[in-house]
Each structure stands twice: as structure tokens, then as C-alpha cells.
Design goal:
Helix 3 runs parallel beside helix 7. Helices cover 31% and strands 23% of the residues. The strands form 2 sheets. Strands 9-8-7-6-5-4-11-10 form an 8-stranded antiparallel β-sheet. The relative contact order is 0.13. Strand 8 and strand 9 form a beta hairpin. The protein starts with a helix and ends in a 13-residue tail after the last strand.
């Protein structure tokens, strides 16, 4: 170890060096990317950056867990934001998905309520009772044209709720000779499905953490989207989310009645219920259609 005299000499030498006022920026944050180990669950790493005042990366580290330090927001960290986005873009495998929080005029309160309903829906396990032979016609509000919802998950593959805008699209699933890929090019549908966290957008994951919105299970993160002819999932419209908010509330109320009165056995349904939505109560008309009736051209809904 250096003795005291050596340290004093080193300090004096340092004081003789040219000096100037300069500030550096340090930040540590949860990255918008995934690390996918072969024998462990995927996780989002924490990245620490040390930047010079000119935006040059002086030091960077990728960590599995957060450092035990406190960070305070400063306007100067906008430079760090830009560097972080560039790093995430270069290191990420895919282009980041847009989040529900980016949909214009969709308030966080509405999304929070939607995520609460989705968690309740998953915990209710409707796929134990309902299959694709139990189509629901749901109108929200009752005077609107119905949409047709089918619970997914009875086969044990994908869990959630598929929503079709037209009865013809439901019929074609069972009667058309076309392949699923060909059918997908002919129509789109609204969907809620449950997956592990990487299926969600980073924007929505960060919002869930910030607002403490619930997740029913590690493999039950709710993903809302609309399918495209290219079989991609894109952001739904605000009207889709408003409809889903009412529909999930009505389905949960119906399932509660089924459990109490019929021990979970599927019974015919034709009811109008009042459900809470952000902004006030909403009336929803729900019908469980007999499977054979969906093929009748004179089906009145």
C-alpha cells in the first residue's frame, strides 16, 4: 500500500494537471429488452450508464438486479434517455411493440380497470366450462350491434377471449373449407390472450409496475390486440377497449351466477346486467347462443 507521503505527492501532481469544470451523467434503469437464458425464465436487465457531458459512454454495465441506489430525475438525463434508446434498439432482437398507453385518449384509469378485469377473468378459468361451441352474443350498450365472443383455452393451448364483429366470421370457422391462414386474410377480430411478460409491450409493462396493476400469474400477462390479414397483432381501437371493459364485467357476473346456482354447469343465458366502467355504469346484454343456432340464417340477435 502507498504510504501517506506517496499519497500527498500524488495529490499534488494531480493538482498540477490542467483542470476544467465538467459534469458527467450517471443513470441506472430497467432496460426495454429481454435476456433469455436457456435454462431460466426471461428477464429484463438493468443497465447502468456513465456519460460524459458530450454524450460519450464512459462506462456501461448490464446487471440482472437493480443496484441499491436512489436516482433522481434531472432534465440533463434527457441525454441519457437518448443513449439508452439507441442501445436498446441495437441490442434488442425485435422492434419494440407499441403499448395500450400510447392509444390517444385512453386514460390510465381505464387501462387499470381493464387489467383488473382481465386478472379476474383469468382466475375464474372460464375455459373449464366453455369451449368454442359456446358462443356469446354481447351488446355493450344493449342497443349496439352485437359482437360474438368465444372463450379460448379448453384445448389447453391459448387462453383468453376471441371477439368477432360478425356472426358470419364465427360460422366460417366451422363451415369453411379454407385454411386458418386464408380465413385470417378475409376478416379481423379483437382478442384478449394471456402470455408471459415478453408478449406485452415495454410501455404497458412499465405502466403496470408504476400503477401496481395486477397480473394473475407469471404466465398470465394480458395482451389486447386486433389481428390483421398478415396474421399480426396490432393495437385495438379505444372503442374495442371500452367494449371489452363492459363485456368482461358481464361475463364475470354471469359466471358468478353459474357457480352459485348451477355449480359451474353451462346454462342458457339471455340477460342484461349493469357493470361498472370508468366514467359510470354501463348496461350490457349477454346471450349464450346454442351452438346449432349460429348456423341459422334467421338467427335474431
Amino acid at each position: 500500500m502507498a504510504n501517506q507521503r506517496q499519497l500527498e505527492r500524488l495529490v499534488k501532481q494531480g493538482q498540477c494537471l490542467p483542470q476544467r469544470d465538467e459534469y458527467w451523467i450517471a443513470t441506472s434503469r430497467l432496460a426495454r429488452m429481454w435476456i433469455t437464458p436457456k435454462h431460466a425464465s426471461p428477464y429484463r436487465p438493468y443497465i447502468t450508464l456513465l456519460l460524459s457531458q458530450h454524450g460519450k459512454i464512459v462506462s456501461s454495465r448490464v446487471l440482472e438486479e437493480a443496484l441499491n441506489i436512489q436516482c433522481v430525475y434531472r432534465h440533463d438525463l434527457l441525454m441519457a434517455d437518448e443513449v439508452m434508446v439507441e442501445m436498446e434498439t441495437q441490442m434488442g432482437k425485435y422492434k419494440p411493440l407499441p403499448g395500450l398507453v400510447s392509444i390517444p385518449s385512453v386514460a390510465p384509469q381505464m387501462l387499470g380497470h381493464l387489467y383488473h378485469l382481465a386478472a379476474q377473468f383469468y382466475r375464474a378459468s372460464p375455459w373449464r366450462w366453455f369451449s368454442d361451441h359456446h358462443p356469446f352474443a354481447i351488446q355493450c350498450p344493449p342497443e349496439d350491434t352485437p359482437r360474438y365472443a368465444i372463450v379460448m383455452g379448453s384445448g389447453g393451448a391459448v387462453f383468453g377471449l376471441a371477439v368477432y364483429d360478425r356472426l358470419e366470421d364465427v360460422r366460417s370457422m366451422f363451415t369453411s373449407s379454407l385454411s386458418p391462414r386464408q380465413l385470417a386474410r378475409m376478416s379481423t377480430w379483437f382478442v384478449l390472450f394471456f402470455e408471459e411478460a415478453p408478449a406485452m409491450s415495454f410501455e404497458d409493462l412499465d405502466a403496470m409496475t408504476a400503477h401496481d396493476w395486477p397480473v394473475a400469474a407469471p404466465h398470465a400477462y394480458p395482451v389486447f390486440g386486433r389481428t390483421t390479414a398478415a396474421q399480426e397483432i396490432v393495437l385495438p381501437a379505444k372503442a374495442d377497449l371500452r367494449w371489452m371493459e363492459g363485456a368482461l364485467g358481464a361475463l364475470l357476473a354471469y359466471m358468478d351466477t353459474q357457480r352459485e346456482a348451477y355449480q359451474g354447469k353451462v346454462q342458457p343465458a339471455d340477460l342484461t346486467v349493469s357493470v361498472p366502467r370508468v366514467g359510470g355504469e354501463a348496461h350490457v346484454h349477454l346471450r349464450l347462443l346454442a351452438f346449432d343456432t349460429i348456423f341459422r340464417e334467421d338467427l335474431g340477435v
